[in-house]
Amino acid sequence: MSKKVRTLIFVVATITFLASATKIIWTYYQMHVGQSAYDNISQEVITEPPVETVEVPDNPWPTIDFATLDSINPDIIAWLFIPDTPISYPIMRGPDNNAYLRTTFDKKPNILGSIFQDYRNDADFADQNTVIYGHNTRNDTMFGSLKKYKQLEYAEQRTNIYVIRKSDVLVYEIFAVYETLATSDTYTIRFESDASFASYLQEMAAKTVTQVGSPPDSGHIITLSTCTGGDQTMRLVLQAKLVETVPSGT
After folding, report:
1. Structure confidence at residue 54 (pLDDT)
2. How far is CA 214 from CA 10, 88, 171, 203, in A?
């Protein structure tokens, strides 16, 4: 191999390395900026510190200042909170499922994106299945921590999910954790009959890799969805049933 060829290979390798390093640095910078924005808004709108453990039975969710959230972005429809996890974020609802995929709650472009409701859902969570999306991150921000729910001990200690709204708090209990295709029936939102919905619930529960609860026969559920981090066609989902609606101030 001639000296010129060796030099060319070295130059190409160096450029490739620098390009990769730059991309990695930029990605982590974006994640830092995005999470800092979420940390700041949490400090601004959470007017009561959240309870630190799930064992406390009375109101283990924070109080949210929705007037401030409305002034920042009227697309914020609720606040998602899971005790003893990093998940404490505003829930967005855009005109489509791309609006907040790479945009934060304050409408700034960022790879972290937002936690957002499927645009096909009603904003009041009245559908039989309300789907909520978030990115899977390596540092467990956004929905990055959902993968831990595949561990039984972790899931058993974090069975409740809270959707905090202006007038009330929707309390959900997890019944299924599994991986599925992004195009699967999991993402069905409305059903032709109660019987078809009941059949769907049993089918989803049968897929779970972590047995932490039983599915309902009817009512309402939420589906938290994120990428698996591997196959781009697959998603990790966590499904939970509505067990209680608590009016605000109680």
Report:
1. 45
2. 59, 25, 15, 12
